[in-house]
Amino acid sequence: MDLQSLTQSVIAIATEVGDYLREERLKLSSVSSHAKGIHDYVTAFDKESERRIVATLKAALPESGFIAEEGTATHSGSERYLWIVDPLDGTTNFIHGLRTTAISIALYENLGGAQGRMLLGVVYEFWARECFYSYAGAQGAFLNGQPIHVSQAATTEESLIATGFPYTDFSRLDQYMDFLKWTMRHTHGVRRIGSAAADLAYVACGRVDGFYEYSLKPYDVAAGAFLIQQAGGLVSDFGGGVNWLFGGEIVAANPILFPSLQNTLADFLSKV
């Protein structure tokens, strides 16, 4: 498999769909008096974007299955290759006209059981026209063709941390808020951008030093987490294990900062 060429194909469809989403959003009127209508339109955008992406990826790799947010394509469980697709990450931002939204596409190789590896990842932040990408065997990760790397921040005190807030799962909200208070007191600041894919891409290129969130799906994190690994960073679940893709929780940072961030997070989130 020529992963470099395949990545270029993924970049091309992400760019095409990003242009479509940007143009369609610019046609919409203010959300102030048409909130329900805007939601309906965006659902249609999501599904149409996913259909376009799925059609292109299926043609490029016919034997593949899909984990896709809108469910326009699925998998049987037996496919060796799985495309993991979020056609519009940051939907609430998109609805309200906030311009941090992204398309996230990753290719995962299922090696049986709990084993697997990411083969490529693309995050396209279409308002900014910034495309973050990498593939297995590449020398690092890239932003619009230029190499990127995680930051060198060595302590939480000198770091900027990104996070996300749970939408529906508030089972760990108290512990989460306690850790948020800790990060507010012990870092340069905390940012809640509204797109996990963008958050992770920003860790990969050093704009923020770390990220954590729970109640996430594979399509929220697959591409961005792979970019961080390719850019020299570390990724895990809250307990420091490897179940960040399907486990619904993730913490990521540069390798210097990662141990202290992950350990402190684990301490807070383990409290009852």
CATH domain topology of the largest domain: Fructose-1,6-Bisphosphatase, Chain A, domain 1
Would you identify the CATH H-level superfamily of the largest domain? Fructose-1,6-Bisphosphatase, subunit A, domain 1
Q: Secondary-structure element order, as H and E?
A: HHEEHEEEEEEHEHEHEEH
Q: Label the CATH architecture of the largest domain.
A: 2-Layer Sandwich
How many E-type strands?
12
Q: Helical amount among residues, as a percent range?
A: 25-40%
Head-to-tail CA distance between termini: 48 Å
Can you describe what's shown?
This protein folds into 2 domains: 145 residues, Fructose-1,6-Bisphosphatase, subunit A, domain 1 (Fructose-1,6-Bisphosphatase, Chain A, domain 1), CATH 3.30.540; 114 residues, D-Maltodextrin-Binding Protein, domain 2 (3-Layer(aba) Sandwich), CATH 3.40.190. The chain is an alpha+beta fold. The protein contains 7 helices and 12 strands. A hairpin with a 4-residue loop joins β4 and β5. Strands 1-2-3-4-5-6-7 form a 7-stranded mixed sheet, with helices on both faces. Strands 9-8-10-12-11 form a 5-stranded mixed sheet, sandwiched between helices. α1 runs antiparallel to α2 and α4 packs antiparallel against α7.
